[in-house]
Write a structure and sequence with these properties.
By secondary structure, this protein is an alpha+beta fold. It has helices at about 5-15, 20-40, 85-95, and strands at about 45, 50-60, 60-65, 70-75, 75-85. The radius of gyration is 20 Å and the shape is extended.
């Protein structure tokens, strides 16, 4: 498994579309900014066959520090949930790596 950066994606798109890298970079960054803005406004984003982004709010709770056993108040927190779409599910199912048996068993 390797990490693909935004720069690498921009370079790939620019090469595939024969568009200038600066233009592709502006479009990609604009797209990502809009996703952030919509999620910040608590909107749900649905991209057919790709997936759905939506925010979830975890309620406030009381947790415990495992080291000191001190009770700690954890404030409510918003996070983003992503649910895969049909095409992504199909693509990932096909390219699933084979399971390796545990040699210590």
């Amino acid at each position: 498994m390797s990490t693909v950066t935004k720069k690498e994606l921009i370079d790939r798109i620019a090469e595939a579309t024969q568009a200038k890298r600066v233009v592709v970079k502006r479009i990609v960054q604009g797209f990502l900014d809009e996703i952030i803005n919509e999620l910040a406004a608590d909107n749900r984003l649905e991209f057919r066959d790709f997936g759905v982004f939506e925010t979830r709010t975890r309620t406030a709770r009381v947790a415990q520090n495992p080291k000191t056993l001190e009770r700690v108040h954890v404030p409510p927190k918003r996070s983003v949930k992503f649910k895969m779409g049909r095409l992504m599910k199909e693509k990932l199912a096909v390219q699933q790596p084979p399971l390796v048996e545990n040699p210590q068993s």
